[in-house]
């Protein structure tokens, strides 16, 4: 019997945490019991990106995309789809607008505007099979380069492609390689920065989990270009699945002689080993990362010297982010002139964004640079949850800022985001709605930086702490207008004087919310009111005596007995006793309780 | 695991194993391929549709037809004429064949898929669907 069907089950961290491993096991069991082993192949694939709808099962070649699959659904999928050729309609995606079932992911709004370059193999191949990577032209780029290109030509191609670092800064990758290439030394290093630390960003993890060989191949290409024979991947130990798949990828590549000595018959030697980080945010900064790898404290040092001059063990080193590297083989397979047609004038190619927060379609999306925020949030993301109003989107994590409604039609690239007071960062995009309080959001990010500051320089160590305290005052309704000036001034000082990128960008969430949501800050200070109703100390729960029927439901759920009143008479909340837990509001069936 | 010595060997390996991801590759490009849908209702399976599907897959492979994808579908309603298959060339209306046997498979592949001409045994379209 010939092979007829391939079943792809998402085995990314997201889907695995909702039982996709059990789904795979059930498929294998069902197929064994029905003796379909020769006809149906089951693979565990990487992330499909549509995490909101996980666990996802995709069946080829008829391209049926099943969503929210449970382990119990497997016998039906095998019986109906694999044997009888009938789609199991109840597990298909329902278009939220037309209410119709959509079987092929190509016709879903979530995928229509995406262009998958870095994620080309994620959700397509079995990441643990080097053969599947090779069958998708894997290692061909490396082979072509070793056979017919000089290091200089490789660097020129990357420069021509216009690839810029995807980890945050957006530095031109080709230039970085050229600096390291020009610095002569007996040893050089290629480092892959897999220390993804922005809250909400998970593209690097997904690439390593879904297509680890693309990173391995790119590192070898980079090694050839700059003249390095050693590569290191600095990865956080909190990413066990990515570590496991990457380890297997490196071993398999060695087995085929794609890493090691005399790769593909050339005189080029290159090998990779893995270094573990403990998850400190500052170690995403390249100097801190290098120090951490050397066994020192993960603290940044002033630049220059840049890593390309004196990096790991004082040798010329390039540090490239995972997503940046995943783009590299494609540049050589398709040509720099293919790559630089995508995107905007100064930002070429695509960017992967981790879409999170109050948006309908949470997940991983890869779009061409220059797409607008509106397209990402409303077309791909499906708009704001529960029909609420869009307020802002936070990009660039703790180093970034907020973009508002007026930025919705700005094309997204490195430069436009910077001009708007935010940054690309690693691509986390957290969507906020009308119920989110901006000073509180700024405080959330500040508290993250306070926690993650390494403490080496004063502006960052003390400054961020003070910023956080001032924001605390705002949220408690105890700040004055002078405090708002102080926030701004202190923010600017930290920006100018901190030692590394972490400190320099830490005030961004404060400064950008101050700029775009000044009125909201003023409301907290002058009126002692939180317009979003989030800041506990500024919220007051009140019962509308007109609407209250005296059912006593609220009084019964109040944990601190702050509500009094007789049966069938209007109740009152004692503001002194109230701890603002909101339980009464949830319990009221007559919408008589509101937040003021 | 034997080491790959050069780019030529890497390409040879790729060609040898490309079958592993072939179904997925075809799936992502399905609208540009010749699609052969085999009806897999109970009556179809009883009449030998599973074997017919195999003949198509093997026949296409034997002829090196990279642009053919064979999929399964549910009951098409022509239970009297099982096994039935629907053949659609890109951009052309599909044709449904009934009473398909091994010889018919060869004929469909040679004349319809490769030559673009219908062969005997087409069931005339007798109904409309909501998509028409």
The portion of residues assigned to helices of chain B is: 25-40%
Number of helical regions of chain B: 5
The appropriate CATH architecture of chain B is 3-Layer(aba) Sandwich
Oligomer: heterodimer
Class computed from helices, strands and strand pairing of chain B: alpha+beta
> What is the CATH homology-level superfamily of chain B?
Glutaredoxin
Under CATH, the topology of chain B is which?
A: Glutaredoxin
Q: List how many beta strands of chain B DSSP finds.
A: 5
Please describe the biggest sheet of chain A, giving its number of strands, its sense, and whether it closes into a barrel: 5 strands, mixed
Distance between the termini of chain B: 54 Å
Number of strands of chain A: 19
Q: Biggest interface: chains and residue counts?
A: A-B, 40 and 41 residues
Approximate shape of chain B: elongated
CATH topology of the largest domain in chain A: Rossmann fold
Q: Supply the number of helical segments of chain A.
A: 26
Give the uncertain stretches of chain A in residue-range form.
Answer: none
Output the CATH homologous superfamily of the largest domain in chain A.
NADH-ubiquinone oxidoreductase 51kDa subunit
Which regions of chain B are unreliable across 5 or more consecutive residues at pLDDT < 50? none
Rg of chain A is: 27 Å
Question: How do the SSEs of chain B run, as a string of H and E?
Answer: HHEHHEEEHE
């Amino acid at each position: 019997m010939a092979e007829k069907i391939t079943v792809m089950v998402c085995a990314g961290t997201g889907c695995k945490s909702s039982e996709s491993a059990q789904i795979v096991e059930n498929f294998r069991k069902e197929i064994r019991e029905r003796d379909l082993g020769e006809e149906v192949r089951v693979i565990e694939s990487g992330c499909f990106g549509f995490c909101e709808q996980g666990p996802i099962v995709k069946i080829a070649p008829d391209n049926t995309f099943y969503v929210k699959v449970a382990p119990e659904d497997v016998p039906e999928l095998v019986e109906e789809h694999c044997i009888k050729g009938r789609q199991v309609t109840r597990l298909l995606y329902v278009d939220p607008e037309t209410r119709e079932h959509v079987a092929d992911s190509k016709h879903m709004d979530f995928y229509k505007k995406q262009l998958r370059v870095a994620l080309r193999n994620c959700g397509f191949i079995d990441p643990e099979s080097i053969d599947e990577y090779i069958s998708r032209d894997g290692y061909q780029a490396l082979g072509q380069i070793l056979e017919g290109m000089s290091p200089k030509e490789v660097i020129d191609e990357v420069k021509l492609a216009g690839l810029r670092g995807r980890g945050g800064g957006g530095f031109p990758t080709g230039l970085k390689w050229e600096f390291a290439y020009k610095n002569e030394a007996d040893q050089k290093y290629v480092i892959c920065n897999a220390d993804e630390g922005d809250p909400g960003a998970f593209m690097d993890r997904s690439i390593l989990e879904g297509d680890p060989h693309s990173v391995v191949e790119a590192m070898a290409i980079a090694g050839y270009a700059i003249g390095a024979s050693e590569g290191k991947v600095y990865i956080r130990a909190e990413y066990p699945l990515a570590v496991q798949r990457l380890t297997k990828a490196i071993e398999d590549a060695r087995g085929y002689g794609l890493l090691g000595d005399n790769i593909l018959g050339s005189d080029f030697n290159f090998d990779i080993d893995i270094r573990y980080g403990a998850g400190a945010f500052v170690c995403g900064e390249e100097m801190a990362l290098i120090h951490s790898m050397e066994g020192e404290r993960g603290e940044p040092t002033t630049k220059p010297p840049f890593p390309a001059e004196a990096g790991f063990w004082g040798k010329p080193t390039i540090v490239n982010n995972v997503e940046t590297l995943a783009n590299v083989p494609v540049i050589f397979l398709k040509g720099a002139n293919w790559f630089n047609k995508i995107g905007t004038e100064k930002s070429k190619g695509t960017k992967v964004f981790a879409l999170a927060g109050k948006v309908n379609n949470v997940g991983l999306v890869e779009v061409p640079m220059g797409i607008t925020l509106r397209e990402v949030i409303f077309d791909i993301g499906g708009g704001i949850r529960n029909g609420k109003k869009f307020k802002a989107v936070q990009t660039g994590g703790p180093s970034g800022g907020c973009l508002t409604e007026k930025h919705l039609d700005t094309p997204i690239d490195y430069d436009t985001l910077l001009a708007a007071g935010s940054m690309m960062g690693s691509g986390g995009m957290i969507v906020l709605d009308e119920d989110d309080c901006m000073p509180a959001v700024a405080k959330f990010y500040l508290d993250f930086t306070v926690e993650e500051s390494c403490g080496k320089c004063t502006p960052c160590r003390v400054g961020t702490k003070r910023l956080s305290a001032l924001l605390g005052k705002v949220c408690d309704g105890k700040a004055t207008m002078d405090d708002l000036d102080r926030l701004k001034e202190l923010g600017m000082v930290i920006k100018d004087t901190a030692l590394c990128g972490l400190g320099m960008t830490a005030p961004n969430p404060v400064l950008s919310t101050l700029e775009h949501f000044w009125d909201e800050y003023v409301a907290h200070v002058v009126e002692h009111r939180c317009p979003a109703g989030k800041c506990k100390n500024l919220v007051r729960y009140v019962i509308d005596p007109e609407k209250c029927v005296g059912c006593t439901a609220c009084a019964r759920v109040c944990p601190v007995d702050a509500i009094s009143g007789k049966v069938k008479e209007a109740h009152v909340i004692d503001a002194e006793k109230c701890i603002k837990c909101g339980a009464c509001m949830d319990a009221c069936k007559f919408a008589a309780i509101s937040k003021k | 695991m034997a080491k790959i010595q050069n780019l030529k060997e890497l390409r040879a390996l790729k060609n040898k194993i490309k079958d592993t991801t072939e179904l997925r590759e075809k799936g992502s490009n399905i609208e540009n391929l010749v699609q052969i849908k085999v009806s897999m209702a109970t009556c179809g399976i009883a009449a030998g549709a599973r074997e017919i599907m195999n003949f198509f897959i093997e026949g296409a492979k034997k002829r090196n037809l990279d642009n053919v994808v064979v999929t399964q579908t549910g009951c098409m309603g022509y239970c009297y004429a099982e096994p039935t298959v629907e053949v659609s060339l890109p951009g052309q209306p599909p044709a449904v064949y009934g009473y398909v046997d091994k010889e018919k498979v060869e004929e469909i592949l040679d004349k319809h898929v490769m030559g673009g001409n219908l062969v005997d045994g087409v069931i005339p379209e007798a109904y409309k669907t909501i998509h028409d």
